[in-house]
Design brief:
The chain is α+β, with helices and mostly antiparallel strands and about 110 residues long. It has two helices and three strands.
């Protein structure tokens, strides 16, 4: 529930209005998505609906990220369960170190 409306101005120029919540926080209003009363983050939507809009093109779409079942390590002759990027913890560490060594060195700007 918003209690007060306050106007922010700079050099006597009206910038925008800000609502004050009962807790004393200021917000730009409420989310415009149906039955959502959360404070606005951007594009007249709350943080959750704004992220949905950015990811899926609509704030109404909800897609659950599905994880695949556990798989075996991609390393040859390793039967352990993969932890990250298809490798077990031991082989992921080795893979990561190899990738870091293969990258060209970043030289500081002179």
């Amino acid at each position: 529930m918003l209690s007060k409306v306050k106007f922010l101005a700079h050099n006597n120029t009206l910038l925008h209005h800000v609502n004050q919540t009962p807790e004393g926080k200021f917000c730009m209003g409420n989310c415009t998505v149906y039955e959502c009363g959360k404070p606005v983050k951007a594009k007249k939507m709350c943080s959750m609906h704004h992220q949905r809009w950015r990811r899926h093109g609509s704030p109404e779409i909800t897609k659950v990220r599905q994880s695949s079942g556990p798989s075996d390590c991609k390393w040859i002759n390793c039967g352990k369960t993969s932890i990250s990027k298809g490798f077990c913890s031991k082989h992921y560490y080795i893979h990561r170190m190899q990738m870091m060594q293969n990258k060209p060195e970043q030289l500081p700007n002179s």
